[in-house]
Amino acid sequence: MKNYIEVDEWRIVESGFDPTLNRVSESLFSIGNGKMGQRANFEETYSGASLQGSYVGGVFCSDKTRVGWWKIGYPATLDKVVNSTNWIGIRLLVDDVELDLAMGEVLEFERVLHMKEGYLERSFQVKLAGDRVIAVRAVRFCSIVDDEIGAIRYVVKPLNFEGRFRIVSYLDGDIRNEDSNYDLKFWDPVTDAAKEDGIYLQMRTVKTGFDLGVYAHTRILKGCDEVQVAPRITRATKWIGQEFELIVREGEEAVIEKTVAVLSSLNYHRDALQAAGLTKLRAAVDKGFARLKAEQADAWAEKWRYSDVRIEGDAKAQQGIRFNIFQLFQTYTGTDPRLNIGPKGFTGEKYAGATFWDTEAYCVPFYLATAPQEVSRNLLIYRHRQLGKAIENAAMLGFTGGAALYPMVTMDGTESHNEWEITFEEIHRNGAIALAIRNYIRYTGDDAYLAEYGAEVLVAIARFWAQRVNWSEAKQRYVIMGVTGPNEYENNVDNNWYTNTIAAWCLNYAKWALQQVREHHEARYLEIVNAIAFDPEEVFRWDEIATKMYYPKDDRLGVFLQQDGYLDKEQRSVADLNVSERPLNQHWSWDRILRSCFIKQADVLQGFYSFEDRYEDATLRRNFDFYEPRTVHESSLSPCIHSILAAKLKEEQRAYEFYLRTARLDLDDYNNDTEDGLHITSMAGTWMSIVEGFGGMRVKDGRLSFDPFVPSSWLSFSFSIRFRGTRLTCKISKGKMEVINHSTTPIRFYVKGEMCQAEAHATSMLDLF
Amino acid sequence: MKNYIEVDEWRIVESGFDPTLNRVSESLFSIGNGKMGQRANFEETYSGASLQGSYVGGVFCSDKTRVGWWKIGYPATLDKVVNSTNWIGIRLLVDDVELDLAMGEVLEFERVLHMKEGYLERSFQVKLAGDRVIAVRAVRFCSIVDDEIGAIRYVVKPLNFEGRFRIVSYLDGDIRNEDSNYDLKFWDPVTDAAKEDGIYLQMRTVKTGFDLGVYAHTRILKGCDEVQVAPRITRATKWIGQEFELIVREGEEAVIEKTVAVLSSLNYHRDALQAAGLTKLRAAVDKGFARLKAEQADAWAEKWRYSDVRIEGDAKAQQGIRFNIFQLFQTYTGTDPRLNIGPKGFTGEKYAGATFWDTEAYCVPFYLATAPQEVSRNLLIYRHRQLGKAIENAAMLGFTGGAALYPMVTMDGTESHNEWEITFEEIHRNGAIALAIRNYIRYTGDDAYLAEYGAEVLVAIARFWAQRVNWSEAKQRYVIMGVTGPNEYENNVDNNWYTNTIAAWCLNYAKWALQQVREHHEARYLEIVNAIAFDPEEVFRWDEIATKMYYPKDDRLGVFLQQDGYLDKEQRSVADLNVSERPLNQHWSWDRILRSCFIKQADVLQGFYSFEDRYEDATLRRNFDFYEPRTVHESSLSPCIHSILAAKLKEEQRAYEFYLRTARLDLDDYNNDTEDGLHITSMAGTWMSIVEGFGGMRVKDGRLSFDPFVPSSWLSFSFSIRFRGTRLTCKISKGKMEVINHSTTPIRFYVKGEMCQAEAHATSMLDLF
């Protein structure tokens, strides 16, 4: 755990330069716009510890796998986000001495992430050889107005000398992935160019064949006046640069403005990339840095209007939640259904930049409430687009008849994970995808989604479950053997209660979805039936299975059992563990972890979260009291579920404590792993803790419902959300809830079960009893 | 399945050259002497498909592992047999054209493995460019009289021309392992030399630091006369050669005799290797090829006297069993307790050339009956030597107090396998090691072994089980969670019946062993108690656990359950499987295999084999009838157990059918994998099928016991064995058993439960009723 980030409600601030923290800061100060993003690397050369990282959504490489013992059903290669052309690079040579913060004496240093306006700023003073002191101020952002544009303003001032400055503005395509399994490089050069407008570099990924074209325009100004200096073009392998040389006087500011257009063959024919890039670049250059930056601030203001969470009385919490919201919106904007949300977003390479069930289980609820409906809809369509591959994936494992098993980890629908106990067995992910459809429809009321996309996905998932179960003669019930539940500290167990529960639910929900489509979209229904060779008899089997599903439980304890045999384990409590053993996954052998009763992340309790309406509070209470003490929360996705359930059980203090575990996970580098990238998807979980936990927000009968409280250490908190065409801000303080309806129509909702109404453009004050 | 080996009772014969079979033949015709061995590669250059393989027992490398997702408890590197200096190499250039069977036209070709005399012979005629025909006859063996000596006699005759022959006799140390995970090479050069006596090459393994020195003497003869031709020395990277040039007339024979000494730093200081090698080499050269070969034949005759199995009426079976016995004795001679038996012996690299539980479960019974007592004793001492590392291994997984977990795969005691479900979970191997001690003592009566070595191993194993179990409050029994049984088509199951059974047995047996030592070797007992900090109270816990162990069973079916929940699986029969799905491991995803009821190899039935005295025949019958139809025998170690149990159940035809599955496994290349090496350890299983199955041989109350029958397609069979200082040959024909006592003392034994006696140097004829 670190504690070096200054507390500020709207900014992330690092003061002073500590090279040992640089990789952490590179993650924290990352910028992105949903289409591309990058770590907060320095523009100038830096020879210290750094993970140079620029990533473009949907552009991935295919890495060789490392598998000790191959199993049939494993994918041959692993797709992963590819670290791509470094477009921020600006070398600075002062009288032939390279500016490098690892070499010079850093006198002042400040790095600031401006979350309100969406840009990164860095300023420093450094003393070079001969006591020459230079001040630099660099501002950079990835535009969310035009998400193919990046801009840098890099201002250099010699404070106590006049010098000859050589400035090399370059594009470096010779980039490797830090996590490449065999140190392979994934980029081949295609072409480069140096024109009046700037320099261009086009690279192509090996095997996967994505082209990435980057066009960069650089101009040099002194004060506000452009310096007319003809650049010298230099080239190296997969590298092109423009070198400017100028004399800068003591106290004079030299300004380097670098504008780039980053285009990929996802959106353009590869032969058209260069021309399209030039068009984009020219438009951006014409606007100029100041206007680009002003537009950026406006666009971010609009995002914040619908998503901000305000916390009074706790500036650290305020900073934490804004940081999370900011990073989520930097990662995913929902404009392209081919993109998704990697657990590390654009801030690192871990987890391959790929899509996990995190998206459906944690991110969809966040985007549903804070972004236009299309955003979460596109997250759902992402899976619909990949249905064919999910069916192929299931077929590879031996399933037939259009059954789909969505991959555990994927870039484009192909499975990208090779651990049998996860790849083949952590199949509850299929349920998460169905559940996200339910959540989307429940929140938006967009029933038409089922006809358009949802039903096909739901049927394919139901077909999977219908084959994945088997009838147990011994139990006279349908069972699901050999699975890994959300608690990955158990592998290959039989009858994981959560998995059995979600499987049966999927079967029922698919049946319901088909009925909806048949009733309301008959033509489409027939089209679907035809397209997927659907036999209405299939539903009878779904019914039969769902009705006769086996659910492990213990009547004496009155709890559901995480899996068959769970009670045969030695029953211990996390409280009994020595602190030196935590986290278990860094101290215990896998053998010991598997055999212990300790739970990595909410499992049975995840089911209580997903299907809360089914269970009495007393049942939840018994299960919570049983499983919570056994849960080590060694996934950052776990505490939010416990927080929400504790809130439901009116355990306000505990709800708050669970929330605290991830509130500033990255800002304080709790797990000592922020250097590898931020925990983007778990950030959505923190938002859930506040809105669904403290705010008690649900959708019931098509209306919002709240059951809020304020954590005792806060004065108040508020959150802004969208709901079916309205925009609301809900502020909760002790004993009071204020609902501001920003919309032109009134809205009715429940508070603690009572129907309330907020008039258009009005604020309603409600007492919380 | 292939069928190209000619049937011959004492020889393995390949006639005609089929390059597509070459790798298979290289395995089949392998030679070895327990210390070193090699595949039947050609002496001359061969550019076709080949696995050049020379291996030296106990000399191993440390390979980088390939693991997708690391788990705590995994070893950092994997030890594996290292493919080492090629000492057979003889290049032949005829008028500057390289002799290479992949290039010339092969007119005649025969490869013969002489099992009776222990040598490999190859003769061929090949037509080179210009219609020049050459005849070659090459004889080669690894001496079992001096196991550091190899000898080659390579005779060349130009049939229709006179030519200039350049002969390059070389040592090539630039060898790589075919199975190197990252194409690493594992040998560094140390030194080389070219002296009057020959050439020398010394190499050292990277990381593990074994030195291997090979000294080679080569002489050229025409007829019986040595040709005085001064060799030219040539060197390349890790390579040294002697080049001879001579004119050979049409019809004249040029003879190349190459004698080598292969010495390793296992047995000599590395600085002494060269001198020691020269001494060895000189002695061998002085003897000359003919005498070396004659001594080899004598030594093999002695081995056969105690181990031959004769089968009348089935020449293929006869060839098969002799091949198995021959290969087993080529692999292990029992002179060195640091050596063991890799599943592929010296015939390939698969399974890392390492030690598995195959040794204890399958090989020990074979060597007990066919080799001097020291041989199996040394196999046991091998594990005693590695006890310290087994304790370290257990400690790495979190076990304390001197508990030992022997590795699943090892060269020197360090675990060399990285699959959690095997490495951490297939722990029944610990039981196999204890069981081998029981079997050794039962067969030999060498109770003193317990005091000297056995008790320490047994206590450490018992300590492991005592920690590995846990008390189930739910079952009110001790349970063993998270294991993989012998049936590796189930992973991470709870309460594998076989594992629970052997665990409880180990606890009882360790207790018994300690009592034995205390009673008969009190001083040693106190020494042990002191050395291992043994607390006599430990035994109370062992008792408690063994008494209250949980054994899964189904009362309705009257069978033990392979594991908890086995009956929840869909119950199918192997007979229901489509032939196109077999073997399952090549056609089914791992997911499907794990969830199916199909059993890779004997599991519950392995327990019936190991502890047969505990169970009534009716119990065996029910379990056999239940499990046999579910067993796919996709391990070559499985059928022999079923064969022996079928024989016990008087199912003679089925016993024979199970025997057939491995009788000629490699000779007929049943599994299409003989090219990777022979299934050495399963060869012992075939022997067990004949002797323990058809012969019904057991040890009861310190005496041999037989319950024999002749398979209906055989006329008779006989086997020679040793037993406590006697040597017997038992011949079984229809209705009769003939026992020849070759010893100077009479011996009493049981036949079908009746006590019989065979007088010294006499033959007893017994009627089988």
From TrEMBL, chains A, B:
Top-level taxon in the UniProt lineage: Bacteria
Occurrences of domain Glycoside hydrolase family 65 central catalytic (ranges): 322-688
Chain positions recorded as substrate binding sites: 357-358, 600-601
Active site residues of this protein: 488 (proton donor)
Glycoside hydrolase family 65 N-terminal domain: residues covered: 14-265
Name of one Pfam family that matches: Glyco_hydro_65C
Spans through the membrane: none
GO molecular function per UniProt: carbohydrate binding; glycosyltransferase activity; hydrolase activity, hydrolyzing O-glycosyl compounds
GO biological process, one term: carbohydrate metabolic process
Gene3D superfamilies from the UniProt entry: 1.50.10.10, Glycoside hydrolase, family 65, N-terminal domain (2.70.98.40), Maltose phosphorylase, domain 3 (2.60.420.10)
UniProt domain Glycoside hydrolase family 65 C-terminal: residue ranges: 697-754
Annotated InterPro entries: 6-hairpin_glycosidase_sf (IPR008928), 6hp_glycosidase-like_sf (IPR012341), Gal_mutarotase_sf_dom (IPR011013), GH65_N (IPR037018), Glyco_hydro_65_C (IPR005194), Glyco_hydro_65_M (IPR005195), Glyco_hydro_65_N (IPR005196), Malt_Pase/Glycosyl_Hdrlase (IPR017045)
Similarity-based family: Belongs to the glycosyl hydrolase 65 family.
Protein's name according to its UniProt entry: Maltose phosphorylase
